[in-house]
Amino acid sequence: MTASSPGRLDPKDRVIMLSGANRGIGAAIATRLRQDGYRLSLGARSPQSMAEQQGDDCLCQPFDALDPESPQAWADATMAKFGRIDGLINNAGAAAPFGFEDGDEAKLDHMLEVNLKAPYRLIRAALPHLRASGSGRIVNITSLAGIRYKRVSPGYAISKFAAMGLSSAARSLLWDDGIRVTAVAPGPVNTDMMPQMGGLGREEVTQPETIADVVALILAMPNNASVATVPINAVYEPLP
Ligand SMILES: NC(=O)c1ccc[n+]([C@@H]2O[C@H](COP(=O)([O-])OP(=O)(O)OC[C@H]3O[C@@H](n4cnc5c(N)ncnc54)[C@H](OP(=O)(O)O)[C@@H]3O)[C@@H](O)[C@H]2O)c1
């Protein structure tokens, strides 16, 4: 899609909230969206680590997915600075081993809190402003682990399947408000979180900058061209 594609949303003046912006996929998305000309509200547990990005077009705010008050406070701060919110990217995520032999559910609760409940709360907090935008966008970074089960932590897969459900419900229920919701579902990506996948090296798996390219495309697509799910494979598999 080029800048002249009919209906393409112009990044100029559009304001995007991005969670987990300080490293990994989130940092790559932040870099890409700044290049595209968006105004960004970056959320992270340690916003001071992104302080050099703070400026007229960029707000760095505390966001802790384990704090239920954090999403509203971040959305309020975004509105106070920019006066609008056009997009929300739920990127922050957590992965830990949790399987059927585990009796202690603390790790499962943690993953559900970060991968499901915080995105839900962020959608709630941003919703009035995404509605006001008329072309609000929500991108949830889920995972192939949320589409089919294969080798990863069962608890992580459970949380990401739930995040796919969140995406699906939001896509349906918010459609008439002009809000388009997309789940971007990568396989292994070259970040600190990268799972061991059949001995694949870091250069062989998907790179975070490629995920950022996909997110940039989705954010700019017009209301009449919505993509529900983008599965991204690093290696061939028949499904998805
Ligand atoms: N890498 C992969 O192979 C892969 C594959 C499929 C999907 N994904 C998904 O992609 C997204 C980004 O992951 P990544 O690969 O970039 O992993 P990463 O490099 O480990 O980064 C994870 C990000 O989430 C943030 N985060 C974790 N817990 C948080 C909390 N309680 N509150 C706020 N932020 C929190 C981290 O912040 P801190 O720096 O403060 O910890 C960090 O910014 C996640 O949703 C992940 O599940 C990753």
Characterise the protein shown here:
- The relative contact order is 0.16.
- This protein is an alpha/beta fold and 240 residues long.
- It starts with 14 loop residues before the first strand and ends in an 8-residue tail after the last strand.
- It contains 5 helices and 7 strands; from the N terminus they run E-H-E-E-H-E-H-E-H-E-H-E.
- The protein has one domain: NAD(P)-binding Rossmann-like Domain (Rossmann fold, 3-Layer(aba) Sandwich), CATH 3.40.50.
- The protein has a 7-stranded parallel β-sheet with strand order 3-2-1-4-5-6-7, sandwiched between helices.
- Helix content is 37%, strand content 15%.
- Helix 1 packs across helix 5 and helix 2 runs parallel beside helix 3.
- NADP nicotinamide-adenine-dinucleotide phosphate binds next to helix 1.
Features:
240 residues; alpha/beta; Rossmann fold; 7-stranded parallel beta sheet; 15% strand; globular; binds NADP nicotinamide-adenine-dinucleotide phosphate
Radius of gyration: 17 Å
Strand order of the largest sheet: 3-2-1-4-5-6-7
Please estimate the helix content: 25-40%
The arrangement of helices and strands along the chain is EHEEHEHEHEHE
Mean pLDDT: 96
CATH topology heading: Rossmann fold
Bound molecules: NADP nicotinamide-adenine-dinucleotide phosphate
